[in-house]
Amino acid sequence: MPVKTTKKPAKAAKVAKAVHEEKVTKKAPVAKVAKAAKVAKAVKPTKASKAAAKAQAEESAIPSPEKQEIIAQFAVKSGDTGSPEVQVALLTRRVEKLVGHLRSNPHDNHSRRGLLGIVSKRRRLLNYLEKKDKKRFTQIKEKLGLT
Question: Is residue 1 part of a domain?
Fold first, then answer.
């Protein structure tokens, strides 16, 4: 029986061409990324989005009235926002809020993990304060009602 050999080389050539094209297209994502970057640069933010971003930045810089009240109450001197007393008081308020949230949402494990981090940070600050100045440590502990 005669074997048709004319179609096999044509198929082999097509397969080889397809393999070559795959190799070329594997390098293509770099070009696609560059093109996407150009498109992203072409999209300019609107005036409204710029104004919203600026307002948000200003809002985050100004502490809330509740936070300002805590800072004023626990500040060691005027303009004090970073003393251990203020930090512990702010962390205690966050702990109280999170505990309330977790009471109503007992399955919120992400918030529970955040709470553990906040409690640990507060504990470290209290340990530092205890080592540095025992009197300040006992005062802040009594003022916040910590045991």
Answer: no
Q: How many domains does one find in the chain?
A: 2
Residues 1 and 45: their CA atoms lie apart, in Å, by 73
Domain that residue 90 falls in: 63-144
Note whether 75 and 60 are within 8 A (CB).
no
Q: Could you read off the pLDDT of 37-56 as tens digits, one per residue?
A: 555 555 566 767 777 766 66
Q: What is the pLDDT of residue 81?
A: 87
The first and second tokens of residue 137, run together, are 């440590």
> Can you say how many angstroms the Cα of residue 75 is from the centroid of all Cα atoms in its chain?
28
Three-state secondary structure string covering the chain: CCCCCCHHHHHHHHHHHHHHHHHHHHHHHHHHHHHHHHHHHHCCCCHHHHHHHHHHHHHHHCCCHHHHHHHHHHCCCCCCCCCHHHHHHHHHHHHHHHHHHHHHCCCCHHHHHHHHHHHHHHHHHHHHHHHHCHHHHHHHHHHHCCC
Q: How far is CA 77 from the centre of its chain?
A: 32
